[in-house]
């Protein structure tokens, strides 16, 4: 008992360190990308808090898996302290953790972030009356609150029954699991609202995470163009633009005014010239910096990381494809949300995790690494693509130049992607996400010299859908993900979309050339004041 308490205390200590690391990372990340000229305290705090909540939420899955696995020994028996009451208390604790974090996510997505966003949008248009800004922000935020209220009401009363034509034994087990999970209106309302947000997170993951998984490793492998070479090309472009301006202006030497077409051409060329001269100043700064020399020194390491990341991305894609194929071939179809208990077609990740279970805590390290990999590739995808609304580009994410509204959008998108990450992990390793490393005892007749004897033995077997109800504990994550079968069907088709976008992004990234050493740092819509934010940290 003392050993168990010591292990739990150690676990809580490590969890506290993880929370501290998450807060520090969130602060550094937001401060790294926010504009130094447009920095606002409230938007900065909101962005840091939202990003921290997203990262903490991503820790729910490995913690959930660890707790259900921790209650059982590797021989399939429950630990001495893990009686029915203790097991229920631990499950309730995990459930309360979901309640708390998911409620905070609803608060951030539907109230806090929209209010702060509209407040600063109104501040740019009417810089003066704070009371008027607050009223306008509340008016627009009320629309988000209404949407949240509608989702909660629908979730509280939506029918959960699986179609009657699905009468298999497997579906009886699914119903029993959901009954164990609880049937209160508050729980179903929260679960429905979170599932609705997860669908939006799925779309964001298809757009940004799938592309980031292909763009990030290939950018590391290809590297950036030479600063000296870019500067030489930029100088030639400056000379060419100056000559074109002189040729056009030479038309008015005899006193005749320029035509409207020539005046527009001169104006465009002068804007282009200002951009090129800003590029010149940035390139000069980076060419002289020690950071560039450091990046060149670690170039082989970046190539190794790029190759590793592309292998991981391909491993995920293959595992996701095989998992979806398994659902297509062996599930009960669309009306059941393509839910299956157990696996019929194994995949590389589902094979790897049981092997790592034998050495604690390698399996939990891998799950945590996968979650963080999805988050960082999502960040890379958003950073490379910017924030779009259909075909309209709303914001760019740039180091030291990101507007407060763009940071709020970034953190909201990451919140939604993290919600979908749990289902992505389930798709990659369904058996493991359901039961972790739990085993249960199966009765077996002992044989001696090939002859069956009346000696009964018990053999430990990995928990699966055939396990007795009281022998294996299902993670709360699995039940949250599959409480509504129609959302599961949407996630299933979303996985196919994720695979397609990843492959398209891989082809596009392979065809694109090297990135500029100052990629995204100089744009035509930047003001000359942006040169006050010159940064030598390009790589």
UniProtKB/TrEMBL annotation:
<keyword id="KW-0846">Cobalamin</keyword>
<keyword id="KW-0812">Transmembrane</keyword>
<dbReference type="Pfam" id="PF04791">
    <property type="entry name" value="LMBR1"/>
</dbReference>
<protein>
    <recommendedName>
        <fullName>Lysosomal cobalamin transport escort protein LMBD1</fullName>
    </recommendedName>
</protein>
<feature type="transmembrane region" description="Helical">
    <location>
        <begin position="303"/>
        <end position="322"/>
    </location>
</feature>
<keyword id="KW-0175">Coiled coil</keyword>
<keyword id="KW-0813">Transport</keyword>
<feature type="coiled-coil region">
    <location>
        <begin position="259"/>
        <end position="286"/>
    </location>
</feature>
<dbReference type="InterPro" id="IPR006876">
    <property type="entry name" value="LMBR1-like_membr_prot"/>
</dbReference>
<feature type="transmembrane region" description="Helical">
    <location>
        <begin position="140"/>
        <end position="160"/>
    </location>
</feature>
<keyword id="KW-1133">Transmembrane helix</keyword>
<comment type="similarity">
    <text>Belongs to the LIMR family. LMBRD1 subfamily.</text>
</comment>
<feature type="transmembrane region" description="Helical">
    <location>
        <begin position="187"/>
        <end position="211"/>
    </location>
</feature>
<keyword id="KW-0472">Membrane</keyword>
<feature type="transmembrane region" description="Helical">
    <location>
        <begin position="364"/>
        <end position="394"/>
    </location>
</feature>
<keyword id="KW-0170">Cobalt</keyword>
<dbReference type="InterPro" id="IPR050854">
    <property type="entry name" value="LMBD1_LysCbl_Transport"/>
</dbReference>
<feature type="transmembrane region" description="Helical">
    <location>
        <begin position="406"/>
        <end position="426"/>
    </location>
</feature>
<feature type="transmembrane region" description="Helical">
    <location>
        <begin position="42"/>
        <end position="63"/>
    </location>
</feature>
<feature type="transmembrane region" description="Helical">
    <location>
        <begin position="96"/>
        <end position="120"/>
    </location>
</feature>
<feature type="transmembrane region" description="Helical">
    <location>
        <begin position="484"/>
        <end position="508"/>
    </location>
</feature>
<keyword id="KW-0458">Lysosome</keyword>
<dbReference type="GO" id="GO:0005765">
    <property type="term" value="C:lysosomal membrane"/>
</dbReference>
<feature type="transmembrane region" description="Helical">
    <location>
        <begin position="12"/>
        <end position="30"/>
    </location>
</feature>
<dbReference type="GO" id="GO:0031419">
    <property type="term" value="F:cobalamin binding"/>
</dbReference>
């Amino acid at each position: 008992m003392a050993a168990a308490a010591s292990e739990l205390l150690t676990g809580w200590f490590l969890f506290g360190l993880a929370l501290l690391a998450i807060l520090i990372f969130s602060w550094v990340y937001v401060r790294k990308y926010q504009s130094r000229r447009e920095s606002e305290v409230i938007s900065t705090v909101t962005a840091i808090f939202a990003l921290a909540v997203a990262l903490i939420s991503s820790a729910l899955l490995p913690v959930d898996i660890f707790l259900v696995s921790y209650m059982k020994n590797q021989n399939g028996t429950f630990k001495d302290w893990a009686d029915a009451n203790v097991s229920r208390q631990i499950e309730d604790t995990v459930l309360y953790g979901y309640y708390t974090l998911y409620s905070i996510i609803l608060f951030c997505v539907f109230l806090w972030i929209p209010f702060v966003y509209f407040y600063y949008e109104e501040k740019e248009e009417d810089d003066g009356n704070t009371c008027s800004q607050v009223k306008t922000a509340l008016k627009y935020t009320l629309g988000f609150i209404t949407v949240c209220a509608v989702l909660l009401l629908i979730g509280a009363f939506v029918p959960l029954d699986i179609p009657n034509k699905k009468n298999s034994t497997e579906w009886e087990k699914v119903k029993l699991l959901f009954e164990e999970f609880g049937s209160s209106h508050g729980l179903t309302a929260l679960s429905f609202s979170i599932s609705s947000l997860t669908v939006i997170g799925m779309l964001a993951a298809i757009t940004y995470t799938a592309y980031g998984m292909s763009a990030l490793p290939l950018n590391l492998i290809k590297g950036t163009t030479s600063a000296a070479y870019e500067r030489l090309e930029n100088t030639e472009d400056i000379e060419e633009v100056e000559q074109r301006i002189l040729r056009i202006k030479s038309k008015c030497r005899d006193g005749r005014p320029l035509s409207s077409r020539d005046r527009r051409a001169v104006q465009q060329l002068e804007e282009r010239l200002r951009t090129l001269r800003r590029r010149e100043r940035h390139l000069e700064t980076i060419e002289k910096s020690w950071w560039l020399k450091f990046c060149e020194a670690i170039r082989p390491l970046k190539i190794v990381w790029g190759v590793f990341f592309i292998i991981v991305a391909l491993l995920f894609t293959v595992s996701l494809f095989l998992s979806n194929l398994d659902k297509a071939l062996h599930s009960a179809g669309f009306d059941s949300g393509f839910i299956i208990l157990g696996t019929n077609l194994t995949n590389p990740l589902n094979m790897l995790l049981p092997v790592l279970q034998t050495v604690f805590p390698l399996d939990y390290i891998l799950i945590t690494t996968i979650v963080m990999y999805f988050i960082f590739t999502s960040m890379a995808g958003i950073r490379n693509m910017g924030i779009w609304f259909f075909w309209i580009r709303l914001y760019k994410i740039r180091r030291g130049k990101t507007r407060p509204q763009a940071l709020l959008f970034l953190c909201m998108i990451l919140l939604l992607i993290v919600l979908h990450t749990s289902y992505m992990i389930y798709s990659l390793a369904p058996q493991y996400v359901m039961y972790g490393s739990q085993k249960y005892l199966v009765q077996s007749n002992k044989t001696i010299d090939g002859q069956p004897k009346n000696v009964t033995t018990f053999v430990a077997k990995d928990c699966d859908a055939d396990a007795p109800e009281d022998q294996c504990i299902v993670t709360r994550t699995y039940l949250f993900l599959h409480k509504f079968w129609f959302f599961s069907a949407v996630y299933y088709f979303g996985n196919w979309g994720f695979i397609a976008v990843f492959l398209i992004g891989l082809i596009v990234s392979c065809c694109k050339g090297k990135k500029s050493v100052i990629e995204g740092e100089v744009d035509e819509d930047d003001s000359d004041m942006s040169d006050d934010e010159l940064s030598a940290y390009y790589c």
